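Lecture 7 notes: from sequence to structure.
We start with the chain below.
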Amino acid sequence: MLDRIHQLPFRLGLLITLSLTQDANAELRIANLFTDHMVFQQEQPIRIWGWAAPGESVTIGLSDLQTADALACRADEKGKWRVEFAPKKAEGKTFELLVESGDEKIEIKDIMIGEVWICSGQSNMEWRVTQAANSEQEVKIANYPMIRFFDVPSHVKQNEPQADAQESKWKICSPETIGNFSAVGYYFGRKLEQELHVPIGLIGANWGGQRIEPFTPPVGFDQVPELSDYVDDLANGKFKGGATQIYNGMVSGLTPFSVRGAIWYQGESNAGDGLRYNFLKEALVKGWRSVFQNDDLSFYWVQLADFGRGHTGEPAGGGWGPVREGQRRALRIPNTGMAVIIDIGAENDIHPKNKQDVGKRLARLALANDYGRKDVIPSGPLYRSHTIEGDTIRIQFDHVGTGLMVADKGGNHYLDPVQETADARLNEFSIQDNSGNWHWAKAVIDGDQIIVSNEAVKDPQNVRFGYDSNPRINLYNREGLPASPFTTTD
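Predicted structure tokens for the same chain:
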């Protein structure tokens, strides 16, 4: 049981301890996640943990040098101790953490309270600032002392959850430190800091070329009936698709640290799973919410960019179309969102260089959904429903914003602004006849909706938009955000 000592003033180096009897051979430790310059999540429990001799008393103090909080606990039979401070608000103060047991002491300085996000996925999330567009200038101006980041340093798979995070250090964002951090994570965090003016903590846990299943804890698979095959395999000591192994080696040791949410860029390695990615994403989201002990943890992912040598030219589509649809359908999960980047990919490069727009589009989701920004449209148009009206199909959307438009991102997908092309014809719509065949279709904007038709199709059944690996989409809302590819088929 924890004994709380309310508002106990103390100076660093002097903290009241409670009946401490330290084994001379035991070593007091705090988890590797807790280092100088770290950020705690505001308005959520502040969870701190570590190790000492079994049964040993440990006192933990958190001070802003004017007032202090202290908690005492005992290490369990395995030597693990943990305390939980009441939530605090981001007020621009810096804190110091003092952990004592017997004659042993740990001090952690320059702690801030703010907004903390995990940045995870495969190589497009791991892609560094120095590898992305305009890197030299971006690094040069990266003076954001209120942005701090912790990067899990090594690619590690384990069959069992690791009790501690890999050893690393929180770093203050500067031109000297930011170059090797996730570009998407940095541009996401930078936009939040510019808009919210509070400290931003970013935790990177990425591994290129990996499937989604290794990042998923067992409890995630347990919550999705459609993935019972993974549950059965894990029960028999099998790791189908590498299930749980990256979570065990790179994420487990971060839990149950309080965070606002997670941003996720992955799916290329699961492209062959198509619509089933919907359920794989559900397992990841529910699993992380369980292990981070936050049922409201926000989870925002990036839909795969346009990629591939050329265009199939087939109205039925294919390629990455189904996996993007799986990503879109996973939006049924509460407190989630999707950044659509179907307009900033690269035909011959699976790692598009424009990470600035990716980060900004993810940040829009957080600003609108987590931070109450009513003036921010969170994404481009998302298919909501359709109605068949004679020989046409009418499509309704969410997130139309101030209206729909035909537009173009430009030939240089790096950083070009979106430009309206009012007289252009909408691309990439196809329509299905009553025999199941697909035909390219005419699509026109009608207010906040789209009407789709083909003169040769008299009994239309369904519509697809951008349902291909490398579509040339040109449907946007007037906020300059692209519509997500979709299919209306079951």
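Points to note: The two ends are 52 Å apart (CA to CA). Residues 64 and 95 are 4 Å apart (CA to CA).
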